[in-house]
Every structure is written in C-alpha cells, then in structure tokens.
Amino acid sequence: MVDISVMTSGVLHGQVVSGVSVCIAVCGRQGLRSRIFGGSDAAPGEWPWHTTMSYMAMPNCGGTLISEKWLITAAHCFDNTSSEKKRDPSLWKVHIGFTKMGYTPEESSAVTIIPSKIIVHENYTSYVQGNDIALVELSQPVSFTRFISPVCLPEKTHRFHFRSTCYATGLEDVPESVPLDSKRSLKKVAQTLIGWRTCNCIYNTHMRPEVSNPAKPGMLCILDTYGEKGPCLGDSGGPVVCNEDGAWFLAGAISFSQGCHLKDNPTIVTSVSFYQDWIQQVTNSSVTFSPQSINVTDDVDNDTCSDLLSNLTSGNR
C-alpha cells in the first residue's frame, strides 16, 4: 500500500444551545502528522475517528466515531443465526484511539468502552439489499484528544469528487491459521471513490449475472483497479474518508464486495450523506453535519468506466 497523508485543519463541530453556538469538538482533523510514507501502517492520531468493535472478545467490525457518544457502522455486523444475541450491546466492546491491538501493555491513548445501544436501520434485511447502516451509542462519552476525535459528517446535499483518492482504515489482514485476536496493527489504504452507477458498470464487465448491478442508490464504491490492496473480512462498518479543503469527511461505511481486493471488484460502501435524516432522528440531533466548503461539479456517476478497468488478464497477476 502506497500513500501519503497530510496533517490538516478541521471543521468546527458544534451544536446550538439556547441560540448560542457551542463548539464541542473539531471534526475531521488528524491529531498528528503521519511519518509513514510509502507504507500502510497508521500513525498514532492519524485516524482518530476509527473504531474497532469486538464481539465476545474477538475483533469483528470497524466503525467511525461521529460524536462523543455515537459511532456509525454496518448493520450486517450484527447479523447471525440469533441476531438478537448479536445485538446485545453488553457482548460488545468499542476500541478507540489505538494503532495496535492485542499488545501488552496497551497504548496509553487507547480507550475501550461497552456500548449502551445498538440501533440497526429499520429497513435493513440484507447487505445486498441496502440500508446496511447502524448506530452504536457508547455507555459513556469519550474525551477528545489528539488520538480520539470525530470525523466530519456530510450533509445530504454533499457532493464528493468521484475518481479522487480517499482512504479506508481497518485492522491488518491475517492468514487463516492466525487467530483474529492476535497482535494486529491499524492499517490505511488509498482507494478511488466512485458512484453506484459507475460501480455497476465495472461489475457488469464481468459478464456474470450473479454479480451484475450490485450497487444501489444510497451506496458508493471504492476500488484499487488492480486489486492489490483494499478492505477485507473484518473491515465491515469501517470508515471511508475523503479530505476536502483540510477536513476529513466520512463518505461511507464499508459494506461488502465480491472478494477481498480483487481486480475490477469495487468494495461497496453505505453512503452516509444519504442517511442524514435517519441519523439525526436516531441520535435526537445530538450529532452535527458539517456544511461543504468546496464546490464539486465533477461528481460524474454514469455507465462510463473504461478508464477504471484493469488492463491485466487473470494470467497477469
């Protein structure tokens, strides 16, 4: 994975109390400059909104901190044959402010909190059908530091610059023989952001009915054309963030793909801006959506995708 991350300024993240605007945090600001160039390890404070959720002591999904008490993740993280048990918040832990998990002693910046609520979108049935979004309320608020702070939330009118580079974060992949609760680092990976129509254009080049048109309204996609890097199992619900004029906005939560970072197989993510009304309703408007500070007019999302296709055949990998 090759990437360069830049320390930037953020957007005020506040709320109005009795007609007075109160600043409660600065969203979308990296705590420290990255000292990793040409690598994939996340530096302390580089992605302070990233969270990992463990279920019964096993890392299970990613998430994104959006306020001192709320995080966004994927609804399917709480699926299993006994979904009500998987939706029991007492069986989960949320890990924030870390770059390494499973190490002793734990990083001094790391915080672990048990959730108090897990709220899955009421229209969610399966990740392939959409509405793959959930909100998790923490049992106690976190204190914001250089290592823990919220990402900026995009309003429903927000327009992302498609075909630009954004970033996904998640725990490093491990071989099948290695336990998921072993020592693992937080990783970052650069990906190209595209819209759902362009995403379907790429999938439809496979000429396989079972993978045709998997993306729907309310979804975005990310890809590495040659499939050399990208999200994999356990990264579900994790953030895809894009830098706009010095602030990092949450484009979406990782949902699903046809396989781990295969060429011409974009990863589908749930578009956060699409669900602004739902998020505000569930959180009782206790989270803030940040206005867009740049003008994006080239958010082209259509059936043209030849520039994004790999020129490698399966025998060239």
From TrEMBL:
<dbReference type="InterPro" id="IPR033116">
    <property type="entry name" value="TRYPSIN_SER"/>
</dbReference>
<dbReference type="InterPro" id="IPR001314">
    <property type="entry name" value="Peptidase_S1A"/>
</dbReference>
<dbReference type="InterPro" id="IPR043504">
    <property type="entry name" value="Peptidase_S1_PA_chymotrypsin"/>
</dbReference>
<dbReference type="InterPro" id="IPR001254">
    <property type="entry name" value="Trypsin_dom"/>
</dbReference>
<keyword id="KW-0732">Signal</keyword>
<dbReference type="GO" id="GO:0006508">
    <property type="term" value="P:proteolysis"/>
</dbReference>
<dbReference type="InterPro" id="IPR009003">
    <property type="entry name" value="Peptidase_S1_PA"/>
</dbReference>
<protein>
    <recommendedName>
        <fullName>Peptidase S1 domain-containing protein</fullName>
    </recommendedName>
</protein>
<dbReference type="GO" id="GO:0004252">
    <property type="term" value="F:serine-type endopeptidase activity"/>
</dbReference>
<keyword id="KW-0645">Protease</keyword>
<keyword id="KW-0720">Serine protease</keyword>
<feature type="domain" description="Peptidase S1">
    <location>
        <begin position="36"/>
        <end position="284"/>
    </location>
</feature>
<dbReference type="GO" id="GO:0005886">
    <property type="term" value="C:plasma membrane"/>
</dbReference>
<keyword id="KW-0378">Hydrolase</keyword>
<dbReference type="InterPro" id="IPR018114">
    <property type="entry name" value="TRYPSIN_HIS"/>
</dbReference>
<keyword id="KW-1015">Disulfide bond</keyword>
<dbReference type="Pfam" id="PF00089">
    <property type="entry name" value="Trypsin"/>
</dbReference>
